[in-house]
Sequence to fold (590 residues):
Amino acid sequence: MTMERTCKPVAAETINKLTFKDKMRAYKRSPLSLILLLLVCGAALITMLTLLYLIVYILVKGIPYITPDLFSFTYTSDNVSLMPALISTVVMTIIALVIALPLGIGAAIYSVEYAKRGNKLVQLVRITTETLSGIPSIVYGLFGYLCFVTALHWGYSLLAGAFTVAIMILPLIMRTTEEALISVPDSFREGSFGLGAGRLRTVFHIVLPSAVPGILSGVILAIGRVVGESAALMYTAGSVAQMPGQAGGGLFDSVRTLSVHMYVLSSEGLHIDKTYATAVVLLVIVIGINALSSFVAKKITKKQG
Amino acid sequence: MKWSNIKELLMHILFFLTACVSIFAVVLICVFLFANGIPAIGKIGVFKFLLGTKWKPGNDIYGILPMILGSLYVTAGAIIIGVPIGLLTAVFLAKFCPKGLYKILKPATELMAGVPSVVYGFFGLVVLVPLVQNIFGVAGNTMLTASVLLGIMILPTIIGVSESAIRAVPDSYYEGSLALGASHERSVFFATLPAARSGILAGVVLGIGRAIGETMAVVMVAGNKPRMPQGLLDGVRTMTANIVMEMGYATDLHREALIATAVVLFVFILMINVTFSLLRRKDRA
Fold:
């Protein structure tokens, strides 16, 4: 009877687990380990405190100034309402997605489903998308200015801005869609082909639906990118604070998105309170987008697991 | 030919065309930038443009050396601040972090990447600028401020790439080191980290690209005086800032000189991109 009690099974982890005292003794013997540990923890702490400080600082300073007239539908120099900018941002995001989504998904379908392995064109496409994703936004802005605003005579317009950011988010959508398509098991395709479906039907009815969550998380990231963009839009969409189409030019009217709005407010320096409040709105949108994308990503891993 | 075959063929061509869009976009960007920028460099003179130390659009003097140096200095500062902190944070996330904490910290670093640069810039303007002003007793819009802010902004890039590089190292390296009697910390730093070297370097290069291309945040805190950088506690103007500050009202040669500035920036970025993809290829092999 006593034997049984002393031979209680011990989990493997507890055998190897060091007690606090053991650890302290080990650190005493090797101070370098302790220094490394402190450095690593310190760095992580600095990173997180910086982020926390930024968010809390802006929220604390900005939330008291979030008033109803901040969301009034007309912008005046006394009441620098962010509503026109907010709506312009939404419209611009939608147009950019309408342009970039079919192109990005089509390109991803081609390189995953159609092209043969080691296809030279696909390699070239991959290099160019990597190049595109590394180009700074101000270079996109200048390109948009030279191409859409000047060469195509669109002037500072919502459309010019939307086309510029559409090119910016294209590599993001292509990459996430490609990854989503690759993660669809080949057995799906084989089953579909085996039942006599053509390539097109297989892509649209079998592969694409299973890849939707992956594509969606790419779309959400792309939305975040458009919302946060400012340098590329200053000289393409301009910075007129008005509702889209308010001046009668439809999509060819100049508008400012929320980020540009905030930049203008901050550089004017006349409405610091409102700038804080705008920053709060921007931060809340970005946090929401990030939460949404990690929610979608969690769904994907759950489905696969 | 049957209709369904025609449809297949049409869609194949359509997908092929969409795949070509990114190539087309890169070509288009190159053509527009170079066609508008190169003639200006020719008109000003290559050496006068690249090595000229004075930028006075009013007198038709366009030398962008101050801006090139400004960009390089600020980026170097950002790397000095951002890389150690980012790398150590990545080590923490990959090897030290309890699972429960990781679920909070990982999304936090992703959020850091998503915060718009205007918000960072504004944060720099209202927090860092007064801070530098109080500590050093100078006007707060300095190279130091810009470097610190950029160092913060490239953290998520460095953390993300380094963390996945560290995680890609086989556990056997770490375990072998442990078995030889090294502590957890020593094993991570002297067995795992060296093996992740090229991946980490790729992250640093990507961070350099981010820092050198960052525009709005730098404009808001760097002071933007178009003259040779005088020191850490003096204002600088970067290439990106040069474009944003003056594009709004520039005309003729002045405008073309700004586009030429973008060409120089673009060439820098292309070089960084090539380095990055070479490093990554080495990492995979």
Summary: The two ends of chain B are 46 Å apart (CA to CA). Chain B touches chain A through 86 residues (CB under 8 Å). Chain B has twelve helices and two strands. Strands of chain B lie at 55-56, 61-62.
